[in-house]
Design brief:
Elements lengths: L1 E4 L2 E5 L12 H33 L6 E3 L4 E3 L15 H13 L3 E6 L5 H20 L2 H15 L1 E9 L5 E2 L14 H17 L8 H7 L1 E2 L2 E7 L4 E3 L11 E9 H8 L14 H13 L21 E9 L9 E6 L2 E7 L9 E5 L12 H27 L3 E2 L28 E2 L7 H18 L16 H12 L3 H25 L4 E6 L5 E6 L17 E6 L7 H13 L8 H11 L10 H18 L14 H12 L2 H9 L6 H27 L20 H6 L14
Antiparallel strand pairs: 1-2, 3-4, 5-20, 6-9, 6-15, 7-8, 10-11, 11-12, 12-13, 13-14, 16-17, 18-19
Length: 733
């Protein structure tokens, strides 16, 4: 089988994956090149359909496929024919994307065991993943993922460690070589390479210590890459993702990118100039859409990646575990050269790619999409609208019937008012009278719109309209839920991919993060906190077989209805039936949240800050195993602190902690009671003073505001929520 080497057919190689000897670079390179040269044979029809889908999504809905030239083209037509385009595909896709985005996916990590340390580890992992989502552009990546899923039916996700990302730290010149130097000779060579790099970056040179500090060395970070189906070439014999033994990820990179990332010299890298079907499609769509960077849809990458020196194809070969390589194997091929290869280290993801499909096709690895099924309906709709416009044109500018011999030239009719037309009597010209537009035309349009709704499962309620006689919020919510049901398989596939992303991000972070890092937390109750961790903190200490510290779950939204009207009606119903009592502070806050009439989410009140401090004290007293007694401060809201501590004492977690640390004699429980007693004594003293002198704001000492008249006594606060130490767990366990 012929393969392309530097743009020329040079030799024959096999596309049989079983014949690859990973110990020989030549067999790896030949296999990758052979697969690249022959990918058109098994991908042409797929890629053709994907590009047609994308073109229609962008409003280019009159393209056709020429099987001879293997290209998309816009057929010619008479000038009077109309090509009306009313793009109903883009709003449809945007609604599909919105239905997933509004559910607000959220990662949660389950504890590996029931032990306290493992529960704390799971809490840290959960906080880390949620912080990662908010700070690493995951919302944009989710939209990118869903757009590819909805336009082609397929999208892939890759998770990896990028050594070029993250904050920069000061370094010496030799640190810029990217090599770990051990001997004096290795250090000397590393320094020379580092100095060369600094000079290339336009700095003063190695003698200037500020030069290295000016750039710094990136500490690295986990990265999530959304891969279009044009970039991924999986095992062509596989019909299920579980059966894919390997895949090749191909992306066009600038020569400067390859030099920096893989340590190659510029003279060692030759720009690729061979033509491919994907490249040809890319140019076609680019010219039709008027977009210069439309190349992001192909394996060639975006136009922005193409440096002045051209681009080069970077092929990544990834293989699932085999008896010889139980952790999986990977290799990077550029041209006919293997620049990186090796077995995955233990503890890392063995096959860090996840495949998401919108519509599964039986017996086929590749999925389809709702948009593809709507293309004929969109064409019929455009045709009907075009016919109406053509009829209006014929009515407003009817044709002339000119008898032969009338002496009227073709240029006699200009349409100007008062125009004089001379003719030879009696051969008088006459206007043709177009017939009435058939009523079936409008019926056809209505039927086509109905077909759109049925095929896409987007009826009036789904699009926000009030259907028929249904007026209640819950009724509309039920209709929306029925339409959402068709997307359930796609949502499950997306949820599985998000779970993979979270799991792999934790696995990689646990191995690669060796320095202290900071995560910032902003809770739903508008509280703010900061935590520090290392990668090893994501691993617990359990040695049990099968222990999994990266058991990630994905929560796709809340259980509340998605419609605002339905949520508000639900809140009113909960209050009417007494499930939530507006007279109670906690229930009232929950109702305001459901009704979406709560306070400004950016407003952080002192009470919320006290709750945050109280929860932090809970964690400190638990983790210190009763060896740390938090101080009480003049600015503390003592009653609120007591409430937070007593609330925690009611939880099953607290009950298990005190049982594990001595039961009734638990030092953790004793510390909690001592701390609560300190707040109670301060509250008793302060309560007596303020009752006599009157209520007012906090004084110079930062004292909290007095309790409301008629509130619970200090003794009642002390007794409320007390957790029994004998006779079983607290009520509600």
């Amino acid at each position: 089988m012929p393969i392309l080497k530097n743009g020329n057919l040079t030799k024959y190689a096999s596309t049989d994956f079983g014949a690859v000897d990973f110990k020989k670079d030549e067999t790896i390179s030949e296999f990758v090149q052979a697969r690249w040269a022959t990918r058109e044979q098994h991908r042409q029809s797929l890629e053709r359909q994907w590009y047609l889908n994308i073109a229609n999504y962008l409003g280019q809905q009159y393209l056709q496929w020429n099987p001879v030239t293997k290209a998309l083209f816009l057929p010619r037509q008479p000038r009077h024919r109309v090509r009306a385009t009313v793009n109903r595909l883009m709003p449809m896709v945007r609604r599909i994307i919105s239905s997933t985005v509004r559910q607000r996916p959220q990662w949660t990590v389950s504890p590996a065991t029931g032990e306290l340390n493992d529960r704390i580890t799971a809490g840290l992992a959960t906080d880390y993943l949620r912080y990662y989502w908010n700070t690493h552009g995951m919302n944009d990546k989710l939209i990118d993922l869903l757009t590819w899923r909805s336009t082609t039916g397929n999208v892939f996700v890759r998770v990896f460690w990028d050594a070029f990302k993250g904050d920069k730290i000061a370094a010496e010149a030799e640190d810029f070589s990217g090599k770990k130097a051990r001997s004096k000779e290795e250090k000397r060579k590393a320094k020379e390479e580092g100095e060369s790099y600094l000079k290339k970056m336009g700095l003063a040179g190695p003698e200037d210590a500020k030069a290295a500090k000016k750039i710094g060395v990136a500490i690295g970070d986990v990265d999530v890459e959304i891969c279009s189906p044009f970039e991924i070439d999986p095992d062509p014999d596989a019909t299920r993702w579980e059966d894919v033994s390997h895949l090749i990820h191909t992306k066009a990179r600038s020569i400067s990118y390859v030099v920096d990332r893989y340590g190659l010299k510029e003279e060692e890298v030759q720009a690729d100039d061979n033509e491919t079907v994907s490249r040809f499609f890319e140019r076609q769509l680019s010219s039709l859409t008027g977009s210069s960077n439309f190349g992001t849809v192909s394996a060639w990458g975006s136009a922005g990646q193409q440096g002045s020196g051209g681009t080069v194809l970077v092929h990544q070969l990834w293989c699932r575990p085999t008896p010889d390589y139980p952790n999986g194997y990977w290799a990077v091929v550029i041209g006919d050269r293997v620049v990186r290869k090796g077995e995955n280290p233990p503890g890392f993801p063995v096959f860090p790619y996840s495949h998401i499909k919108e519509v599964a096709v039986p017996g086929r690895l590749w999925g389809s999409c709702v948009l593809e099924q709507c293309l004929p309906i969109q064409a019929a709709y455009n045709r009907a609208r075009s016919q109406i416009i053509e009829h209006l044109n014929a009515v407003s500018r009817p044709q002339w019937l000119i008898p032969k011999g009338s002496g009227i030239s073709k240029t006699s009719f200009t349409g100007e008012p008062g125009e004089k037309i001379f003719y030879t009597y009696p051969l008088k010209p006459e206007l043709s009278r177009p017939g009435e537009l058939p009523s079936v035309t409008h019926q056809n349009i209505n039927q086509t719109l109905g077909d759109f709704e049925d095929v896409s499962s987007q009826h009036e309620a789904y699009k926000g309209a009030t259907p028929g006689r249904v007026e209640s919020g819950l009724g509309i919510a039920q209709l929306q839920e029925q339409d959402d049901g068709i997307l359930a398989p796609a949502s499950m596939s997306t949820s599985d991919a998000l779970k993979d992303i979270g799991t792999w991000a934790l696995q990689i972070s646990a191995k690669k993060i060796t320095e202290d890092r900071m995560i910032k937390l902003f809770g739903s109750d508008r509280t703010f906190d900061v935590r520090y961790f290392k990668g090893e903190d994501l691993l617990g200490g359990s040695k049990m077989t099968g222990t999994n510290y990266f058991d990630v779950m994905v929560e796709l939204g809340s259980s509340l209805p998605s419609s605002k009207g339905a949520r508000q009606q639900l809140g009113i119903s909960l209050a009417q039936f007494g499930i939530l009592d507006p007279g109670k502070k906690e229930d009232r806050e929950k109702l305001l949240e459901i009704l979406e009439v709560g306070a400004d989410p950016t407003d952080v009140s002192p009470g919320q800050m006290d709750k945050q401090n109280g929860r932090r004290e809970n964690m400190e007293m638990v983790t210190q195993q009763g060896q740390y007694l938090p101080p009480t401060w003049p600015f503390d809201d003592d009653a609120l602190h007591i409430s937070v501590h007593r609330e925690f004492q009611k939880t099953p977690e607290y009950w298990q902690i005190i049982q594990e640390t001595g039961g009734a004699e638990s030092p953790v429980h004793m510390i909690f009671e001592m701390h609560i007693q300190a707040h109670t004594e301060r509250l008793s003293a302060r309560y007596g003073v303020t009752q006599e002198e009157g209520a007012g704001p906090a004084g110079p000492q930062g004292a909290a505001e007095p309790m409301e008249e008629g509130g619970p006594s200090p003794d009642a606060l002390m007794e409320e929520g007390g957790a029994p130490l004998e006779g079983g767990p607290p009520v509600g366990y």
